[in-house]
Amino acid sequence: MTETQVLVINADLPDINHPLAIGTEPDLAKLIYTKRQSGEWQYPVRLVSVGEPQWDDEAYLANMKPDPLATEKEQIRAIRHDYHKGIHTIRQLSESTGIFRNRVSFLMHKYSLPRKDAKHFREKGQNTSIMTVPYHKQSILE
User: 113 near 101, Cβ under 8 Å?
Assistant: First the structure.
């Protein structure tokens, strides 16, 4: 059985091009132990396979950014949840969900959620002074 070559690198400053030692894993484990005991290597070290790709902080941080589509889905889910609880105006939805009013308005338009605020009644040409009557029923005062 052939043993693979591994590198010992400084874990704080990883640089595969300048390893601290090269050898087989059992030999390097003994070397690391003796160097740590003598105080020669006081920093953390890491064993790395020769073909292993180097750690990339930029790729890792790019992977940590939130997905805008997932964020939008969570926001529309919160808006729909509150809408079905009986909160119908954009102002009330923005206050209950904690999302900016412009964003709530944009999402309601994008996902075709019905609005029941004064602007909606004005667009439909109905009486805005009687907001308690649903827009699909005729008002007694008209």
Answer: no
